[in-house]
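Notes taken during the Thursday session

The instructor put the following on the board and asked us to keep it in front of us for the whole hour. The protein is GTP cyclohydrolase 1 type 2 homolog. We were told not to look anything up and to reason only from what is written here. First, the residues (367 in total):
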Amino acid sequence: MNTVKANDVIKVMEEWAPESWSFDWDNVGLQVGSKNKQVSKVMVTLDVLENVVDEAIQKDIDLIVAHHPLLFVKPSAINTDQPKGRILQKLLSHDITVYASHTNLDIAEGGVNDVLSEAIGVTKTRPFVSNFQENVYKVAVHIPVEHAERLRSAISDAGAGHLGDYSHCTFQIAGEGTFKPLDGADPYIGNTGELEKVKELKVETIVKEKELSAVIDAIHSSHPYEEPAYDVYRIEINGEDRGLGRIGELAEKVTLDELVEEVKRAYDVPAVRVTGARDKKVKTVAVVGGSGEDFFKAAKAKGADVLITGDVTFHKAQDALEMGLAIIDPGHHVEKLICSTMKEKIEEEHDIEVLLSESDTEPFRFQ
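Then, after some discussion, the predicted structure tokens were revealed:
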């Protein structure tokens, strides 16, 4: 197997769920260790508890990729007599790097809320809590005419040039580029100290923010020049609406009780908390992984018959019930479903061993 750096794995997560998408209060990204660490074994987990770290040590893990951050609040001291301090001590002494992708992964396409929705057959999903519209950039690259098609193909495959139902959208202008290689340069064309003139094309396209890094990498890998000339600037057009939660439709109306049983089966939980009449017919379903009680009014406003979310408190449940919105609370730990998808994403990009943690981090017992 190839050995890669922790940052190579982190980059996979970043391209899927950029850290900039996280909520202000969230502490995503590198938690412990170094992005430059060489890794050959990765473990994916929902939480970074002491039993998870002990498992990682026993399995010689180099990098832990978690959904929930180890450090929600930056510690004022590291007391190794306390649980968090012991965890940090173990991670550092065994050179284990930890990375977390939390609310940004809740928002991301194919992330937590999409996985939870798909698991119970909710389709035609869209965010129902709008957080922001993704930034869009114009990228313009100057390249010799004979290399333009290779560049166009590379940047399009990396995600550039998507407009609605169209891909590979670019515009090009012919012109003449000039440059003079200086001492130390290794020019593809021309000689040191001599002004060179080359027939070039300026190839322009648009790129969504989360694809920008991959597109720039594609420019460098497909361009013949040692120092490719390109411009990147933000443009004032609306990108995709990015937001928390998903709302969508079941294939047909079912009773609330029937949906409860499907939630229990799909999320692998023995019991759930429910508000609403057992025989209430439901079709439009809102889903928020983790703690989503603050969004019950938004779910109702968007036409949801039922909201599926965890950590619902007494009075919020009463308020939702009075509004006519049913609630199914399967707990917070059902976000564990995202771990398999995280594992698959990493394996798609890197030939390294990726394990799912087998440690139980559910704090509740159902009896």
